[in-house]
Amino acid sequence: DVKNAIYDGDYNFVGEMNAENLDELFHIGNTGGQPNGAASLSVGDVIVDEHGGTIAISPEGFDLIGFDLTA
After folding, report:
1. What DSSP string runs through 6-61?
2. Confidence class of residue 70 from pLDDT cuts 50, 70 and 90?
3. pLDDT by residue (tens digit) across 31-41?
C-alpha cells in the first residue's frame, strides 16, 4: 500500500514541477520536462501538491491518497 511505503521511506523526493493540473503534470513528466535526474512519471509514483496533499498515479488516472505530508 502506498501510504505504508511512504512512511517506510520507500519513496524519495526527486524535484519540483509546475503545472495547471494533474494531466498536464503527467504530460510534462513524460516529455522531458521532469527534474534533472528524475525518471518519467509512471504508475505508482506519488505527487505531493502545493498544500502537502498526496496523489498516486494509477493505471487509470490519479488516486487521492488522503494525507498531508507537511503535518
Report:
1. HHTT----------SSHHHHHHHTTTT-SPTTPPPP-TT-EEE-TTSEEEEEETTE
2. low
3. 999 888 888 99
Q: Which residue has the cell 500500500?
A: 1
- Residues with Cβ within 8 Å of 58's Cβ and at least 6 positions away in sequence, in order, are 43
Cell readout for 57 is 498515479
Q: How is the beta sheet containing 46-48 ordered, strand by strand?
A: 46-48, 53-58, 61-68
In eight-state DSSP terms, residue 64 is: E
Ramachandran sector of residue 13 (left: φ over 0; alpha: ψ -120 to 50; beta: rest)? beta
